[in-house]
Amino acid sequence: MQEESPVKVIDGRKLSDLLLEEMTQEVQERMQEGYPQPGLAVVLVGEDPASTIYVRNKIRCAEKAGLFSLVKRLDASCSQQTLDDVVVELNEREDIHGILVQLPLPKHLSEERIINLIDPTKDVDGFHPVNVGLLSSGQAKLVPCTPLGCMEMLKREMGDLTGKHAVVIGRSNIVGKPMANLLLQANCTVSIVHSKTIDAAALCRQADILVAAVGVAELVDKSWVKPGAVVIDVGINATEVDGKRKLVGDVNFADVADKCRAITPVPGGVGPMTIACLIKNTLTAAKQHDI
Ligand code: NAD
């Protein structure tokens, strides 16, 4: 008989399915009450294979949840003006409540300009400076999807996070910084570790909650982890094992798993939750128009 593992693997697919079911129901109920169908528009520039897969998954999830959705595809060589015009048109459309421009953009296009151009009330990625400011000042409306998904997993796993020491590895605008802000608002004591931190492992060993958002395959081994910590692995890194392509996280799962209380796998952890939270944000954006 197999021994029961004391480690809990947090199943992001199961949890995201649950969230999607809850939201599907909410969308149906709202429409029965006469509210308009929430609409999501995704803008895809070029044909980067990873971006194409991400967009397909996002649209599939949106449709599953009963949202109206559309994809605006632009050629990789399109001008900044063409992209700007598409965003402005989507800003004005009443049937579109959420707009997402899939990043990264081709090098000749400005991501900053596009992020700033999206109507903040439709900014379902939560990257617009208005939404960044609202999050930092404790008035969050639209929060970046990946950290939002991580918080959902942490709250369902640990309940009240008050007083926990959380260490976030990474300080990007997309994951690290908003993650740290959300943890702070959940009353955690928060440390941020980054590429210039001296002895990152020593700081991480103090963490009750460790969130890795680095982009370095299996950087975090058990020498970085406090016994009983909850570990959230945001990283998605493509590697090759025996000639086969394999996705791994920023955490060495096999090395760390039996040291922690709970851990997210890669794939099947944070990734599916990110998409579920995009749907959540579209619903939040649509509700802003409720009277
Ligand atoms: P990024 O490159 O913008 O930021 C990486 C951060 O890691 C930087 O702040 C840097 O200072 C820090 N860093 C780099 N090397 C370090 C080291 N040795 N020690 C400590 N810190 C170090 O990346 P990002 O956009 O924040 O993404 C991070 C990872 O998360 C990537 O693997 C990305 O693919 C993944 N990601 C996953 C999802 C998802 O849905 N699961 C969403 C977004 C990003």
From TrEMBL:
Keywords: Amino-acid biosynthesis, Histidine biosynthesis, Hydrolase, Methionine biosynthesis, Multifunctional enzyme, NADP, One-carbon metabolism, Oxidoreductase, Purine biosynthesis. The keyword Transmembrane helix does not apply. Residues 144-289 form the Tetrahydrofolate dehydrogenase/cyclohydrolase NAD(P)-binding domain. Signal peptide: none annotated. Its EC number is 1.5.1.5, 3.5.4.9. Pathway: One-carbon metabolism; tetrahydrofolate interconversion. Residues 10-125 form the Tetrahydrofolate dehydrogenase/cyclohydrolase catalytic domain. NADP(+) binds at residues 170-172, 236. Coiled coil: none annotated. The keyword Oxidoreductase applies. It comes from the Bacteria. Gene3D superfamilies: Leucine Dehydrogenase, chain A, domain 1 (3.40.50.10860), NAD(P)-binding Rossmann-like Domain (3.40.50.720). It catalyses: (6R)-5,10-methenyltetrahydrofolate + H2O = (6R)-10-formyltetrahydrofolate + H(+); (6R)-5,10-methylene-5,6,7,8-tetrahydrofolate + NADP(+) = (6R)-5,10-methenyltetrahydrofolate + NADPH. InterPro entries: Aminoacid_DH-like_N_sf (IPR046346), NAD(P)-bd_dom_sf (IPR036291), THF_DH/CycHdrlase (IPR000672), THF_DH/CycHdrlase_cat_dom (IPR020630), THF_DH/CycHdrlase_CS (IPR020867), THF_DH/CycHdrlase_NAD-bd_dom (IPR020631). SUPFAM superfamilies: Aminoacid dehydrogenase-like, N-terminal domain, NAD(P)-binding Rossmann-fold domains. Catalyzes the oxidation of 5,10-methylenetetrahydrofolate to 5,10-methenyltetrahydrofolate and then the hydrolysis of 5,10-methenyltetrahydrofolate to 10-formyltetrahydrofolate. Belongs to the tetrahydrofolate dehydrogenase/cyclohydrolase family. Homodimer. This is Bifunctional protein FolD. It comes from Enterovibrio gelatinilyticus. The lineage of its organism: Bacteria, Pseudomonadati, Pseudomonadota, Gammaproteobacteria, Vibrionales. The gene is folD.
